[in-house]
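# nightly structure sweep
# worker-07 picked up a monomer target from the shared queue
# config: single-sequence mode, recycle default, output format = structure tokens
# input follows
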Amino acid sequence: MAQVEHQGKTFIVDEDGFIDDYASWSEEWVDYVRKEEGIKDMTDEHRKVVDVLRDYYEKNGIAPMVRVLSKVTGFKLKYIYELFPSGPGKGACKMAGLPKPTGCV
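# output follows
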């Protein structure tokens, strides 16, 4: 597995750049993914998506389906893609420290 260093922290990532250990998640990781995703500034809407993903994962052990994410956040799918250009699975789940989703997120 590869390593990523950002703001003095080292993260182990898989071949797709997802953090290998949910417990390693930190604000430094969020900032790293934000920059990698080309997101200029973290907004409250970005935070809401990340918080919903983390909360759902902690309760269920998997990432929510897209329609669940949309319903819980109140954001239309199109808007989630505006927030996370690479999508809810690749961008948002990666930022939230979740493992790479196996199904549709």
